[in-house]
Specification:
Layout (H helix, E strand, L loop, with lengths): L2 E5 L4 H13 L4 E6 L19 E5 L5 H11 L3 E4 L6 H6 L1 H23 L6 E7 L23 H20 L3 E6 L1 E3 L8 H10 L4 E4 L5 E6 H14 L5 E4 L4 E3 H16 L10 E4 L14 H7 L7 H14 L1 H7 L3 H11 L2
The site of nicotinamide-adenine-dinucleotide has 30 residues, from helix 1, helix 4, strand 5 and strand 7.
């Protein structure tokens, strides 16, 4: 019997990790701690929330008193830490929230775990990070685990800082830590402020598709369930003190990706070929927009035996099908503060 704390489990990636752990490890107790910000949604977990090995706690990782009490009371065997402010555009508008959750929140968890665990090597503190901490690639090559950390946005600076704190706690307090850095995820439950779900939502609603700059930036896309599978493998088989890159060798220029998505959706929606691409609108670029991310995950593949389970075409088709059959989810999350935020943002572009 193991008791695992998963933070941010009501969010996009976290909900897939919670589902995988609850279903795959009936003997574990999975505690999902989430503040339920605009990005957290318990609807994401409706299919597992009645299982006996699952429990939800609403709480803020930035509240140190609450976190210390939780660790003193619960005796966790492991932590999988995903809670974060995750959207680059929001970090450009309001960096303080990113400092508070991503840095202060992470340090609170590290501090509480090191006090509760007293250097016990059997425990595991697993921090979920991002390839964005490596900065931007101008030219060829891939990010490896030894690439220099060089964050370029307030979001990635906050994630890089939290990565450094994780390593520092491993070094200073002998906390058994693991870090993974994944490329861009896509799939069901992705909040429609990020590129792929935003475009899906706007194609459904026949609204403009805002492509930043000339659409020449490159991202490396991975299906979210393959990220959750990698997290499972690293949590159970990864060596503490190590960093693992996660990615699917799947680079796309934004404009090519949006055109491909338009084609897939025109077919599914029975629209004339080329109808959705006509909605593409080039808008003012993101400030400091990272040009290219591309990840080398050969360490994870060769040492721990993980590889992606779906091709991009399969993953994108599954994703579009999910959004088309979950329009209630879309309408719930696109109501309220999200609409206000985006109408203000695009008013300024
Ligand atoms: P998300 O924004 O969808 O979800 C974040 C979750 O954290 C939400 O449920 C939110 O309510 C919760 N949360 C936010 N602040 C909190 C706080 N103070 N206390 C407790 N809970 C809080 O994010 P995501 O895309 O699922 O990303 C999850 C993690 O994976 C993040 O750490 C992110 O940096 C990392 N990551 C994301 C991607 C990606 O492509 N989305 C890629 C690599 C790494
Ligand atoms: O690389 C991993 C990171 O991927 C994660 O750490 C972040 O949490 C996650 O949000 C994501 O960051 P990006 O900034 O790469 O993702 P986003 O979906 O915001 O943007 C993807 C690309 O599409 C980027 O080049 C900006 C562009 N874009 C985005 C939006 C929202 C557009 O052209 N138009 C848009 O409307």
């Amino acid at each position: 019997m193991k008791k695992i704390l998963i933070t941010g489990g009501a969010g996009f990636i976290g909900s897939h990790v919670v589902r995988l752990f609850v279903n795959q490890y009936p003997k574990y107790r999975i505690i999902n701690l989430d503040k339920l910000t605009y990005a957290g949604n318990l609807e994401n977990l409706r299919d597992v929330d009645q299982k006996p090995n699952y429990r939800f706690i609403k709480g803020d990782i930035a509240e140190s008193g609450f976190i210390n009490t939780l660790f003193a009371e619960e005796q966790f065997d492991g932590v999988i830490h995903l809670a974060a402010e995750s959207h680059v555009d929001r970090s450009l508008e309001n960096p303080n929230e990113f400092v508070i959750t991503n840095i202060v929140g992470t340090v609170n968890l590290l501090h509480a775990a090191s006090k509760a665990w007293q250097s016990n090597p059997e425990k595991r503190f697993y921090h979920i990070s991002t390839d964005e901490v490596y900065g931007s690639i101008h030219g060829g090559g891939l990010f490896t685990e030894s690439t220099h950390i060089d964050p370029q946005s307030p979001y990635s600076a906050s994630k890089a800082s939290s990565d450094h704190f994780v390593s520092a706690f491993g070094n200073s307090y002998k906390l058994p830590v693991l870090i993974s850095r994944c490329s861009n995820n896509y799939g069901p439950n992705h909040f429609p402020e990020k590129l792929i779900p935003l475009m899906i939502n706007n194609i459904i609603e026949e609204k403009p598709l805002p492509v930043y700059g000339k659409g020449e930036n490159i991202r490396d896309w991975l299906y979210v369930i393959d990220h959750a599978r990698a997290i499972d493998v690293i949590f159970h088989k990864g060596k503490t003190g190590e960093v693992y890159n996660i990615g699917g060798n799947n680079e796309w220029k934004n404009i090519d990706l949006v055109n491909f998505l338009c084609k897939v959706m025109d077919e599914k929606l029975g629209r004339e070929e080329g109808a959705s691409s006509k909605l593409i609108t080039f808008v003012k670029d993101r400030p400091g927009h990272d040009l290219r991310y591309a990840i080398d995950s050969s360490k994870l593949q060769s040492q721990l035996g993980w590889s992606p389970s779906v091709t991009f075409e399969e993953g994108l088709n599954k994703t579009v099908d999910w959004y088309l059959s979950n329009k209630d989810w879309l309408s719930h999350v696109t109501s309220g503060s999200y609409r206000d935020y985006y109408s203000n943002m695009y008013a300024n572009r």
